[in-house]
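Exercise 3.2. Students should predict the tertiary structure of the chain below and write it as structure tokens, then compare their answer with the key that follows.

Predict this chain's 3D structure.
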Amino acid sequence: MDFLPKEIEEYSLAHSAEESELFQNLTRETYDKEDIPRMLSGPMVGNVLQLLVRLIDPKLVLDIGTFTGYSALKIAEAMPDGGIVKTYDIEERELAVKFIADALFGNRIELKIGPALESLSNLNDSVDLVFIDADKTNYLNYYNRSLELLRQGGLIVLDNMLWSGEVLQPKDEDSKAIAETNAFIQSDDRVINQLLPIRDGLMIVQKL
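Answer key:
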């Protein structure tokens, strides 16, 4: 589902911060080598993440859903020295390992392989920012655990919250899970939130 005319999307990209060679190469290799390359969050989402990082100056960020490392690298690039991104995925992908190792700021990233909820259950640090872009059926679980770890004023960003428009009439398991998460966040008095029609829907939440 296209949320914007292609010309408007191209104009928006042309008038936004350009991708560095690292991210251009990562995107190209992801589309060359991965079966579902559209899982990569892309420059619109990546640039929003970087803007948020620069606004709140986080020391610890959680990236739930590594895929090929794009979002973790975008976040790490904008973080201050000493900041850490802990990125979680059920599967280790060669591209993620390669690009994190090669990036000048890759030392800010800790790659954790295994069920994210198990890793998060053992985490006790105060977190500044969380980006959620993983299996949709666990979105509400990821959200609730992230909110427990999040400091007051911290941010949670959830990707794919419009799910190609299927949240309007959710039928399958993923669209129902996303619609449930949207409804839960909307009624959650612990936060203030805004769902933005950026790419496939970006929900930004701040803990009160």
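Discussion points: The longest strand covers residues 150-159. Residues 6-207 form a domain with the Rossmann fold fold (CATH 3.40.50.150).
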